Structure formats: structure tokens, C-alpha cells
């Protein structure tokens, strides 16, 4: 049986080599590749809240909930008969946080009584790791009570995993903050655990996987996240800075409350830590619900945008917002080149004309060196001042991405630059691209969707004289608590799962060139795509190949260089078309390295449904 399969394979490769596509590579570059080309976009949807940053508790400060309702107790539970409810405090802990948890311990109770928080669909507990918990408490009326509270982690059945004791005083009728640390002694196999009170954890796992991908820019604070459902619920930079106790949070777009624990300063320091440049958006006077701010009322919003930019790059001696940045420990400005005006304003295009004009003219006057990115369809409506950059979004099928890899080849070279701020193959059903999550949509990126995106990305690389940046979206989503699929990275309380699409982003991002080498063009209607770049500092040629077909495909590369290395590195991502990396089998499809024979002419057989990167030296 095995021999029969091998025989069939030899015959197949022979036939394909006979029909190999020959790709001749030019030794002269056509254009430099912008250093910003491959990056990532942040969207709060199913990600910013829920474990991406170090907060492990859900609904930790009862932000933006209606006191007294069942919903206000989301993620909280009584233990052993305690009475718990969310109240509007008469003397709140801060102006930003008007609500508190009111706890009554009925008389006659024995054993530990109290309350717990179940986190974001669970809490991962690891023995030996230090957990920091912080909470504020007060008693409504003064008493002589003195007692110990146990702050800790338990399984849902009550097994103690780690805990510490704090002393509470009944005389304490004004808010006082308690901070404790402890180390669990047990690592339970399940994440069905709970905490007794507010806690900040340790490192954010999201940061590690982002660094591994090596993105060069980070689009913030998201698209829809910026807009808000209403003007009042828009993202406002100044509500997201300073001590957590001063952040009111906001009703987010997707049915949950944003704590704003991950705020503008955290985004910016994150960018610095990972060597990414921010592509930052300002609110454009339009929210998701469809309402536009009238031109005469735009003034305060424009001022808020000016303040936001000053927070990032302003002079602390001249701007209160910049002085705030300085007081937080960052007197130097952050790097900032691109400011996006709104998000997907093709939906608000009837009013974008005056909003763009008024916002951009005001911002240009203050910040003449910044570039402003428009978010309507290109030249629809025609805008003044004429944008120099547009943000284009594409969600579609894997096939669409492959068939559109020549999209930018046909776009006029007239000085306009393009940002693919969001793209992803999200469904295989072309008549149902935006079908409800769970129906027409992919749950996780598949090998087929990743290959389609890679085909498109070879086109972005070829057209990087006008495409200056591109980011997949969305970046990260919780395995069970999400509003959108597919996501590049999935996470739950147990860990982080890298998708096939993630590996494509990583392969393109870590294997960049600094100039593009023209080569024989792929067929526009075919299933085999490639792009060739050179990294001058190391004399490396890097060839990326996507084969979206169900059969392998043979290529012959011809390299008209003086010297070409006789062997190179081959990195290949391949698997069955509909397979995904699931939380239950997260490493099903990962890039595999091997050595490939190279030379002035060499053959390469691209496996069925695969993405490959071939690297070798030539000069
Ligand atoms: C943020 O600033 C705006 C004015 O630009 C103000 O209306 C709003 O109250 C501020 N929000 C917070 C939480 O400070
Ligand atoms: C594709 O989507 C359309 C429109 O929702 C639906 O009628 C059709 O059944 C879907 N096709 C498949 C194969 O699921
Ligand atoms: C595969 O090769 C690339 C490029 O040489 C290298 O960066 C990467 O670390 C290798 N991966 C493994 C698992 O060896």
C-alpha cells in the first residue's frame, strides 16, 4: 500500500516538473520596501478585555453597570450564603467609580463566607507564581469589629489553591486600599477557579506572541472601538489614563463594558517595548449608531483630538496633555507619523467631507509633520484637503484574496499611499461573507484561508511602492467569549493558540526584505503566487510562495546574479485545506524548516495548500 502511494507521487511530480512555471528574477530592485509594511491592528473586540492585559477579574469595579440588577453582578458569586449586591455608593471610592459591592454576612453562618469572581471564563492558577490582589473596602457604620479576611484562589468546589490573610477594622468607614501578594501551592488542572477579590496578574501573554511576530506598527485604539455606538460612548483618550481608580470605563461596542485598564499610555509603551510605531486614530465625529456631529458642533471634538496628539508628541512646557504624559514618566514624545481620522467612514461618507476638512485642517495647522489617513472609499467622496493616505479594509473569502492579489497593480501611481488596515479571509461562502458568527463564518483561520491571505500579501509586497502598511484583523479573541471569528490568535485562561493565519503573518513579518525584485508575474487567474525581495545588508534573497490549489505545483527559479548560494533555508506551512489550529490541537499546522538546494537555476515543488519562504544568498 505504502509503495503504491510512493509510486503515484513520483509520477505526479514528474508531470509537474514537466509543466513547471519558470520565474525569472530581476537583479535590479524596482522599489524599496517600507519598513512599516507588516504590522498589527488592535481592536478591543473580544480581546482587550479578558486576559490580554494583566487583569484576571471580570467586572472588577462594577463600571458602567446598573446597580441592583443581576447583570451588575456579572462574574461575581456569593460563597456560603453571603448576601451580595451592587449598590450606588453614597461616598464612592472615586468620581470615576460610583458603584461598589455590598456584602452582608447573615448571622449564624459557620465557615468561610464571602464572595468570588470567576474571571474571564476561568482563571489559570499556577503554583509558585506571585499573584497580586488589590481592593478597597469600607464599613457603612463604625463598629468595634476586628477580623481577618482571607484573600485567595480556590477551585469552584472550594479547594484552596493559595491564600493570604488581611486584617479588617470595623472602624474603617472611609475607603482604604489593601494590596496583598501570595503564591498558590497547587496548580489545578482546570481553570474553573475563582478569586475572592480584585487582582492584577503578572505578564500579559498577548504581549509575548505579538513580539514573536515582529510587527513594525500597531494600529490603535482600534476601529469600531474608537467610534463607539454613540458620541457619548466613543473612545476618549483622557478617560483611559492615570490611576485605575480614576478610569470610569465605558459601555463598549460589543455588549460588554470596557474597563479602559488598557489605555492610551499602555498602548504607547507597548509600542515602544516591541519596537512598533503607532498608527493612531482620532475620533472623526461619527459613531457606529450612524450619527454625525454637525459641523458647527465639531469644535470640542477637534480640541480633544489635538489634546490626544499632544499627549503623544506634545511639549510638556506648552501642553497640559503633554505634561500629563511627562508626569506618568515619559517626558520625551513618543514616535508618531500617522494619524487616522475615524474608521470605515464609508459608512458616514455623506458627512465625512466637512468632518475631514475641519479636523485635518485644524490638526495640520498644529502638527504639520503628521500624515493624516482618510477612511472612506478612495475619492468617494472627493476630499479636500486631498488625502495622501487611505485605509482600505477587506474581509472576504480565501478565493477572493487569491484572485485579488493584483488589485494594487492596477491602481494609479499618483502619490496616493494605501494602508490595508484590516483584512482577513473570514468565510468560504462568497454570498455570506458577514454571516453571523457560528453560521457562515470560519471559527478559526484554516490552512486554505491562510494561503489565500498569503497570496494577497505577495501582491501587497509587490505593490509596496504604494502600500505602506498592512494588518490582519482582528488580532486576538477569547476561545468562548468573543463577538467575531476568525481571530489571528485565540486565548483562554489556559493559554494562547497561534492560528495558521498567525504563522503567515509571522513568516512575512520576520522575512522582510528592504527592496523588491521584479520577477515573472504569476497568473492573475491562477492558484500559484510569489514575490521576491532582497535584504541588502546580508545579500539575502527571500522568495515567498503561496499555492492555494489542492495539488502541489512545480516552479523553476532563474536568478541572473554573479554568485548564488548552493543551498538555502525553506520554511513551509502546509496542511489540509479545511484544518485549523484548535485549542485542543494547537500545533497541528506549524512552519517546518528544511534545507533546499538553490543556485542560478533551481526547482521548488510547492505543496498543495501551502505557504513557503525560501531564503538564500546571491550577489
Ligand atoms: C475627557 O475630556 C473631555 C473634553 O475633551 C471631557 O468632556 C471629559 O469629561 C473628559 N473625561 C474624563 C474621564 O476626564
Ligand atoms: C451561503 O450563504 C447563503 C446566504 O446566506 C446561503 O443561502 C447558502 O446556503 C450558503 N451556502 C453554503 C454552502 O453554506
Ligand atoms: C526556521 O528558519 C528561520 C529562518 O532561517 C529561523 O529564523 C527560524 O528560527 C527557524 N525555525 C526553527 C524552528 O528552527
UniProtKB/TrEMBL annotation:
Keywords, comma-separated and alphabetical: Glycoprotein, Hydrolase, Signal
GO-annotated molecular function: alpha-L-arabinofuranosidase activity
Highest taxon listed in the record's lineage: Eukaryota
Family stated for the protein in its record: Belongs to the glycosyl hydrolase 51 family.
UniProt xrefs under InterPro entries: Alpha-L-AF_C, ASD1_cat, Galactose-bd-like_sf, GH, Glyco_hydro_b, Glycosyl_Hydrolase_51
Catalyses which reaction(s): Hydrolysis of terminal non-reducing alpha-L-arabinofuranoside residues in alpha-L-arabinosides
Known pathway: Glycan metabolism; L-arabinan degradation
Pfam families hit by this protein: Alpha-L-AF_C (PF06964), ASD1_dom (PF22848)
Gene3D superfamilies: Glycosidases, Golgi alpha-mannosidase II
Protein name: non-reducing end alpha-L-arabinofuranosidase
PANTHER family in UniProt: ALPHA-L-ARABINOFURANOSIDASE 1 (PTHR31776)
EC number(s) stated in the UniProt entry for this protein: 3.2.1.55
Amino acid at each position: 500500500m505504502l509503495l503504491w502511494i510512493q509510486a503515484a507521487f513520483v509520477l505526479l511530480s514528474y508531470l509537474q516538473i514537466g509543466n513547471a512555471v519558470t520565474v525569472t528574477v530581476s537583479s535590479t530592485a524596482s522599489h524599496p520596501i517600507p519598513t512599516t509594511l507588516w504590522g498589527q491592528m488592535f481592536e478591543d473586540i473580544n480581546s482587550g478585555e479578558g486576559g490580554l492585559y494583566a487583569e484576571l477579574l471580570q467586572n472588577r469595579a462594577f463600571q458602567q453597570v446598573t446597580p441592583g440588577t443581576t447583570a451588575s453582578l456579572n462574574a461575581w458569586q456569593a460563597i456560603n450564603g453571603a448576601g451580595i449586591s451592587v449598590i450606588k455608593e453614597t461616598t464612592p471610592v472615586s468620581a470615576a467609580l460610583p458603584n461598589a459591592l455590598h456584602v452582608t454576612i447573615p448571622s449564624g453562618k459557620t465557615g468561610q463566607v464571602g464572595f468570588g469572581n470567576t474571571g474571564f471564563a476561568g482563571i489559570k492558577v499556577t503554583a509558585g507564581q506571585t499573584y497580586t490582589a488589590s481592593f478597597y473596602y469600607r464599613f457603612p457604620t463604625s463598629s468595634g469589629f476586628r477580623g481577618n479576611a482571607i484573600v485567595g484562589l480556590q477551585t469552584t468546589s472550594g479547594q484552596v489553591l493559595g491564600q493570604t490573610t488581611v486584617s479588617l477594622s470595623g472602624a474603617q468607614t472611609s475607603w482604604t486600599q489593601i494590596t496583598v501578594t501570595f503564591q498558590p501551592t497547587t496548580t489545578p488542572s482546570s481553570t474553573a477557579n475563582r478569586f475572592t477579590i480584585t487582582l492584577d496578574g503578572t505578564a500579559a501573554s498577548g504581549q509575548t506572541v505579538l513580539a514573536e511576530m515582529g510587527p513594525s506598527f500597531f494600529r490603535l485604539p482600534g476601529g469600531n472601538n474608537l467610534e463607539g455606538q454613540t458620541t457619548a460612548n466613543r473612545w476618549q483618550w483622557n478617560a483611559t489614563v492615570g490611576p485605575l481608580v480614576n478610569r470610569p470605563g465605558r459601555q463598549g461596542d460589543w455588549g460588554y463594558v470596557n474597563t479602559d485598564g488598557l489605555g492610551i499610555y499602555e498602548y504607547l509603551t507597548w509600542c515602544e517595548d516591541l519596537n512598533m510605531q503607532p498608527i493612531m486614530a482620532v475620533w472623526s465625529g461619527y459613531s457606529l449608531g450612524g450619527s454625525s456631529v454637525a459641523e458647527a458642533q465639531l469644535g470640542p471634538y477637534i480640541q480633544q483630538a489635538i489634546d490626544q496628539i499632544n499627549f503623544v508628541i506634545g511639549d510638556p512646557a506648552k501642553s497640559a496633555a503633554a505634561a500629563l504624559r511627562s508626569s506618568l514618566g515619559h517626558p520625551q514624545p513618543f514616535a508618531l507619523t500617522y494619524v487616522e481620522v475615524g474608521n470605515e467612514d464609508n459608512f458616514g461618507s455623506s458627512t465625512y467631507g466637512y468632518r475631514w476638512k475641519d479636523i485635518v485642517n485644524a490638526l495640520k495647522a498644529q502638527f504639520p509633520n503628521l500624515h493624516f489617513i482618510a477612511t472612506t472609499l478612495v475619492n468617494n467622496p472627493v476630499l479636500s484637503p486631498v488625502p495622501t493616505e487611505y485605509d482600505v479594509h477587506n474581509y472576504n473569502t480565501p478565493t477572493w484574496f487569491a484572485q485579488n492579489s493584483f488589485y494594487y497593480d492596477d491602481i494609479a501611481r499618483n502619490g496616493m499611499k494605501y494602508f490595508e488596515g484590516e483584512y482577513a479571509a473570514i468565510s468560504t461562502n462568497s454570498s455570506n461573507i458577514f454571516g453571523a458568527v457560528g453560521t457562515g463564518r470560519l471559527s478559526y483561520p484554516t490552512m486554505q484561508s491562510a494561503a489565500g491571505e498569503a497570496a494577497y500579501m505577495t501582491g501587497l509586497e509587490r505593490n509596496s511602492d504604494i502600500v505602506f502598511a498592512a494588518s490582519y484583523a482582528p488580532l486576538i479573541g477569547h476561545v468562548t467569549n468573543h463577538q467575531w471569528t476568525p481571530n489571528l490568535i485565540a486565548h483562554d485562561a489556559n493559554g494562547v493558540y497561534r492560528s495558521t493565519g498567525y504563522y503567515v503573518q509571522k513568516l512575512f513579518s520576520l522575512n522582510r526584505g528592504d527592496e523588491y525584485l521584479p520577477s515573472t508575474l504569476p497568473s492573475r487567474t491562477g492558484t500559484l503566487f510569489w514575490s521576491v525581495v532582497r535584504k541588502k545588508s546580508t545579500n539575502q534573497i527571500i522568495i515567498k510562495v503561496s499555492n492555494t490549489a489542492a495539488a502541489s505545483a512545480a516552479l523553476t527559479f532563474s536568478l541572473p546574479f554573479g554568485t548564488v548560494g548552493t543551498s538555502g533555508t525553506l520554511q513551509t506551512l502546509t496542511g489540509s485545506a479545511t484544518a485549523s489550529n484548535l485549542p485542543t490541537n494547537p500545533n497541528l499546522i506549524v512552519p517546518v524548516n528544511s534545507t533546499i538546494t538553490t543556485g542560478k537555476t533551481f526547482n521548488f515543488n510547492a505543496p498543495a495548500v501551502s505557504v513557503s519562504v525560501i531564503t538564500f544568498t546571491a550577489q
